């Protein structure tokens, strides 16, 4: 009887760890053991040698040439170690080295180059998160397993990031949530087998990742989220802090500053405020994009988010974290005023409700996305504790997508919504119908102080965010739980 009970327990343990496809593979679902010198996870925060560790991380673009890692060509200077020393002197204790743009080559030489780069970071006092080429095809799958093995004995390499922003860079359009989960299960399995003391993540972008790469379902050790634009940052951090379902950190954020239209001091103030907000919302780390300006970036945001300008000169001289680290979190940080209307749309208000199909209970934290007819402008909102949502827009919504953490998604078109017109506006000539976030000047919402006190970079007036002309009702949307 005792042998039978042991066998039953063993079978139950194995089944609980099998992947979603039921193909017999067994995965280790636990966190990696915390080993001396390595960064681990305990009690929903990072730990290092028995102490809580909070990564203050700077993103650093690099490439592999032959047997060495070299900086991005738009960085001034070609000495990676010198750059790492500079980053540490600014107050950072970690770098996310982005090596995801690579071609096939001599794997052994590339492993050695990456190893030397990690050693250089370690010598500068920095821990490394390594963004790798996403291993979709057989060559990169083999490469990744070799890299994990080759660097497993390096405590300074604290985490692997296997994919940057699936929302934008997943080659498979309209991926099923469970397919994403199966992929990530496979990748995590490699990390557990070949690099058992290092952590594993996937870098997610805005909350509409929940439609395919649902952060609450991804079997990662922690979530690394990216968020940009002052009108969106606080709302998106709020959503992740309440609904991603696992430890999370800000991996990328930034405010572009060219010292002309946006003064350099604004960038520093934005960093201070978002750092404080992240800590207050329970983030376990904070990262900035990026080391130096990229003059060839695709837009203003991509060109000027660096902490050095295009000539390699430091934009702000202050030690970035010396004062901020002394500030405790605001445990009563309120929900952002623009949470349900991030971009202050004022033409149309759609309401509705999201419920669990099986129980009829309201679904909190669902993400509702609308697009206009030609898909040129999209807008998001979220459901409250009663499952209700209010979707503000400047153009008529036609295409919709709705999902929630751990639940199915609905995609549909709705061309026959009835709108009431309580303000008697000209419904055929609504203003600013093509207004979307890259076109919005956020400077009117900024307010800065000339002191070391904490700053408020969003000086929000509720009248900006809750005006509307036309009203419509979406009714009830039902989702299934996985």
Number of self-contained structural domains: 2
Shape-level CATH architecture of the largest domain: Alpha-Beta Barrel
Distance between the termini: 36 Å
What percentage of the residues does DSSP assign to strands (E)? Answer: 15-25%
Helix content: 10-25%
Order of helices and strands: HEEEEEHEHEHEHHEEHEHEHEEEEEEEHE
CATH class of the largest domain: Alpha Beta
**Annotation, overall tally of beta strands:** 20
Shape: globular
User: What name does the CATH topology of the largest domain carry?
Assistant: TIM Barrel
Assembly type: single chain
- Number of separate helices: 10
Main beta-sheet strand count, sense and barrel state = 9 strands, mixed
Q: What is the gyration radius calculated from CA atoms? A: 23 Å
Structural class: alpha/beta
CATH superfamily of the largest domain: Glycosidases
Low confidence ranges: 1-28, 448-455
Mean pLDDT: 89
Describe the structure.
The protein is α/β, with parallel strands linked by helices and 482 residues long. Helices cover 24% and strands 22% of the residues. The strands form 4 sheets. Strands 4, 5, 6, 7, 8, 9, 10, 11 and 12 form a 9-stranded mixed sheet that branches. A hairpin with a 2-residue loop joins β2 and β3. α2 (80-89) packs parallel to α3 (107-123), α3 crosses α4 and α7 runs parallel beside α8. The two termini are 36 Å apart.
Task: Please render the helix and strand layout as text.
Layout: H1 2-16, E1 39-42, E2 45-48, E3 51-52, E4 56-65, E5 68-71, H2 80-89, E6 94-98, H3 107-123, E7 127-131, H4 138-151, E8 157-164, H5 166-169, H6 177-194, E9 199-204, E10 223-226, H7 230-243, E11 248-252, H8 264-280, E12 286-288, H9 300-303, E13 348-356, E14 367-371, E15 378-382, E16 388-393, E17 399-403, E18 409-413, E19 419-420, H10 462-465, E20 470-479
Parallel strand pairs: 4-6, 4-12, 6-7, 7-8, 8-9, 9-10, 10-11, 13-20
Antiparallel strand pairs: 1-2, 2-3, 4-5, 13-16, 14-15, 14-17, 17-18, 19-20
């Amino acid at each position: 009887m005792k042998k039978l009970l042991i066998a039953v327990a063993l079978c139950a343990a194995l089944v609980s760890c099998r992947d979603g496809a039921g193909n017999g593979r067994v995965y280790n679902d636990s966190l990696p053991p915390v080993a001396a010198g390595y960064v681990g996870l305990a009690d929903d925060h990072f730990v290092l040698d028995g102490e809580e560790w909070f990564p203050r991380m700077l993103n650093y673009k690099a490439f592999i040439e032959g047997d060495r890692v070299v900086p991005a060509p738009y960085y001034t200077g070609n000495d990676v170690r010198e750059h790492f020393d500079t980053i540490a002197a600014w107050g950072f204790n970690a770098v996310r080295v982005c090596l995801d743009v690579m071609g096939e080559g001599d794997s052994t030489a590339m492993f050695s180059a990456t190893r030397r780069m990690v050693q250089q970071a370690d010598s500068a006092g920095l821990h490394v998160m390594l963004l790798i080429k996403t291993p979709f095809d057989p060559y990169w799958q083999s490469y990744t397993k070799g890299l994990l093995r080759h660097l497993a004995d390096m405590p300074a390499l604290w985490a692997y990031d296997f994919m940057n922003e699936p929302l934008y860079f997943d080659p498979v359009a309209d991926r099923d949530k469970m397919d994403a989960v199966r992929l990530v299960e496979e990748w995590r399995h490699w990390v557990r087998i070949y690099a058992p003391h290092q952590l594993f993540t996937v870098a997610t972008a805005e909350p509409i990742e929940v439609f395919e790469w649902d952060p609450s379902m991804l079997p990662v050790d922690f979530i690394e989220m990216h968020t940009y634009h002052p009108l969106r940052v606080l709302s998106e951090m709020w959503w992740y802090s309440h609904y991603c379902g696992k430890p999370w950190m800000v991996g990328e954020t930034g405010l572009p500053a060219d010292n002309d239209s946006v003064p350099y001091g604004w960038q520093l103030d934005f960093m201070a405020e978002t750092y404080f907000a992240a800590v207050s919302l329970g983030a376990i780390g904070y990262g900035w994009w990026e080391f130096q300006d990229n003059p060839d970036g695709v837009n203003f945001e991509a060109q000027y988010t660096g902490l050095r300008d295009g000539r390699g000169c430091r934009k702000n001289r202050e030690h970035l974290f010396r004062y901020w680290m002394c500030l405790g979190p605001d445990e009563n940080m309120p929900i952002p005023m623009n949470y349900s209307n991030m971009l202050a749309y004022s033409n149309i208000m759609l309401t509705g409700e999201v419920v669990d199909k099986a129980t009829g209970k309201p679904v909190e934290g669902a993400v509702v996305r609308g697009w206009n007819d030609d898909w040129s402008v999209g807008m998001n909102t979220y459901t409250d504790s009663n499952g209700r949502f209010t979707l503000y827009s400047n153009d008529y919504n036609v295409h919709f997508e709705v999902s929630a953490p751990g639940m199915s998604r609905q995609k549909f078109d709705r061309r026959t919504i009835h709108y009431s017109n309580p303000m008697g506006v000209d419904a055929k000539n609504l203003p600013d119908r093509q207004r979307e976030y890259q076109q919005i000047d956020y400077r009117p919402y900024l307010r800065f102080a000339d002191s070391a006190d904490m700053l408020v970079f969003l000086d929000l007036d509720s009248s900006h965010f809750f005006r509307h002309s036309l009203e419509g009702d979406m009714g009830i949307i039902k989702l299934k739980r996985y």
